[in-house]
Amino acid sequence: MVYRPADVITRVFSHNDVEEQGPPAPSGYSITSTYALCVRYDGTEVDDRYCDSLTRPEPTQEFCIGKQCPPRWETSGWSACSRTCGEGVQYRIVRCWKMLSPGFDSSVYDSLCVSHDLHKPANRKVCHGQSCGPQWEVSEWSECSAHCGSWGIRTREVRCSMERRQCNDSSRPIESQECEGQPCDRRWSVSDWGPCSGECGEGRMVRSVTCRSSGGHVMSDGQCDQPLRPLAIYPCGDRDCAPHWVEQEWQQCNATCGRGVRQRQVVCAGLEGGVFKEFPDSSCNQTNKPQMSSSCFQRPCSKWFTTSWSQCSKTCGRGVQVREVKCYQGEELVTRGHSCDSALKPEVKQSCEIQSCPTEAPASQGADFCQDKATANCALVLKVKLCSHWYYRKACCQSCKAPRA
């Protein structure tokens, strides 16, 4: 692999470019830069690590103004690697830009850059993560088992991406942890009663009973105190109605997926003078008491599982971490369809920042090394007063240190 000079590329710098490329050019100016690519003998661009960095040519910069500036290719930053392990792909946007007039820079058709014989930067490249060996995958945490103001337990499933024995037990994620219940600001809320549906013994009035936060948001029933739940179904049909069984609405299935059990309350109740009254169970006929529990089946047990987060993509400044997210139905990986709830799909990437990037120039090697770079147009740097920035102060060290006439 050898370095060869790439085609000339013109770029208008923004404040975000200072970290790698230098400071902004004066208003109406842009900077023409030549750079080198590492290429195979067949001309294919490859990663810089395949070339000897000692032989890499220095980049050069020149200023241009308005329409004098040739078109150039602009690139976005590389995306995160498509895989957290093994070989993946990174992508970036490549567009042709040109300064149409001083201060007015715009994207143009790619053909304009092509007509100037400009080498188009690659918009995809191969990336390599850690070896795709066995790794632990975890599901999302369950809801906390605690009632408000108390402590409980939440759980999650932990599985090995390959055979169980191939994963390292010392790095196995925990499957349960203590959790604190929600604040005790949840209250039962009821609607008005609906009309009576029939005669005494058969007639029912129904109302809605919901668990709400202090802000009025509907919560899951488990967030409210179950023993204090108001009745949602009352007997009706006559001012005086003998005791009979009044079954309440079914509660939620105790399983979020697969088979489970649901419960309901059954009370022995009647009316005396039009007023509801609850009686002991012995006052009602035991032979026709409605069932208080039944089996239930939710959607098939499909769950989202995630791997651990990758390392941050940048050692300084804002970068990206990625992870794999998979849907499993039991032991089977689901690659098609919508078995897992897409609304509950965990994030596959997140921003990260290990430390801030330095804004000052690297430490100087001493006064003996203070000399202008041959590739820098130091006369123009002095003319447009760019010595105040470390990038040009270093590139034109001798000129910037010279006393002003």
TrEMBL record:
UniProt GO cellular component terms: extracellular matrix; extracellular region
InterPro entries: ADAMTS_ADAMTS-like, PLAC, TSP1_rpt, TSP1_rpt_sf
Compartments where found: Secreted
Keyword Oxidoreductase (UniProt): no
Statement: the UniProt record of this protein carries the keyword Signal: yes
MF terms in GO: metalloendopeptidase activity
Pfam families: PLAC, TSP1_ADAMTS
Coiled-coil ranges (or none): none
Name assigned to this protein: PLAC domain-containing protein
